[in-house]
Design brief:
Blueprint lengths: L2 H19 L2 H21 L5 H17 L4 H21 L5 H19 L2 H23 L7 H21 L9 H19 L5 H19 L2 H25 L2 H24 L1 H7 L1
Helix pairs in contact: 1-2, 1-3, 2-3, 3-4, 4-6, 5-6, 5-7, 6-7, 6-8, 7-8, 8-9, 8-10, 9-10, 9-11, 10-11
Length: 282
């Protein structure tokens, strides 16, 4: 299993020598070492230490970076991302997977936005989709209370990372998926609150969450979060009349109505107070 770091190091040396000397014959040797590194990874990484198993992935990523805008960038980046997925399935504990994918997505997205490179941005999207999928899997089949906060953090980190990447590169690929990310995040948060709600009334919890969506939409000038807040608020209104009134004790019904009424007043005041600004942002 020591062949993995040896092949990865030798491949980097040969690639660096090729770029430094301009000798094309050396490039074939570097390519051979790179292929050997990837093959070694597929065979040995499951039985290797997590740090050793990372070396072939770093090799592919560094080689892709060294060769600049040649074919290695187009092939190396996606290949490194695929290898990273296999590495994560083997070496990352299941409760941490969503958070790992979300963090990797943010790092890749920021790097792509900073370099104005679409390939890392789309890799970031793929990692974010993976994080979201793991989030829902853990929500449906929860591994335990200890994983709950990690899944929640993963959802928020991915959305925040996409937002920051769009700030760095306003015309980048992540702009195209902004509505999907917003609605996916809000749906996930509402489902997470329903699954892990600590309040006696889910209507009250959703009302506070709807207020948070509305506030985020106003602060970020994003109509999707505002509309999502209003949609969740509408669901809360329906729930208080069709569920809480019939299923809760009087004290919990009163709490639901009070919280919902306060949130409705705050949202109504916000729309009336900043009506002109909201119209310009639509």
């Amino acid at each position: 299993m020591d062949v993995m770091p040896a092949a990865a190091t030798a491949g980097l040396v040969w690639t660096g020598a090729t770029l430094f000397t301009g000798a094309r014959l050396l490039s074939f040797a570097g390519l051979a070492f790179s292929i050997a590194t990837v093959l070694d990874f597929t065979v040995w990484q499951s039985g290797s230490h997590w740090a050793v198993a990372l070396l072939p992935i770093l090799h592919v990523g560094i080689v892709a970076r060294l060769v600049g805008k040649r074919s290695g960038v187009r092939v190396g980046g996606p290949l490194a991302a695929i290898m990273l997925l296999f590495w994560s399935w083997e070496h990352i504990p299941a409760p941490w997977l969503a958070l790992f994918y979300a963090t990797a997505s943010v790092a890749t997205g920021v790097a792509g936005a900073g370099a104005r490179n679409a390939a890392p941005s789309w890799i970031s999207v793929a990692l974010g989709v993976q994080a979201t999928a793991v989030f829902w899997l853990h929500l449906i089949l929860p591994p335990g209370a200890s994983a709950a906060w990690r899944d929640l953090a993963a959802l928020v980190i991915f959305a925040a990372g996409c937002r920051f990447s769009r700030k760095l590169w306003p015309g980048g690929p992540l702009l195209q998926i902004a509505p999907i990310v917003a609605w996916s995040t809000m749906t996930g948060l509402a489902a997470w609150v329903a699954r892990h709600n600590a309040l006696a009334s889910l209507t009250a919890a959703w009302s506070f969450l709807a207020l948070g969506f509305f506030t985020a939409g106003f602060a970020l000038r994003d109509r999707h979060y505002r509309f999502g807040g209003l949609a969740l608020l509408g669901i809360s209104v329906g729930r208080v009349f069709f569920v809480d009134v019939w299923g809760f004790e009087p004290i919990y019904r009163i709490i639901s109505f009070i919280v919902l009424g306060i949130v409705l007043l705050v949202v109504g005041y916000g729309y009336n107070r900043f009506e002109e600004r909201l119209r310009r942002w639509l």
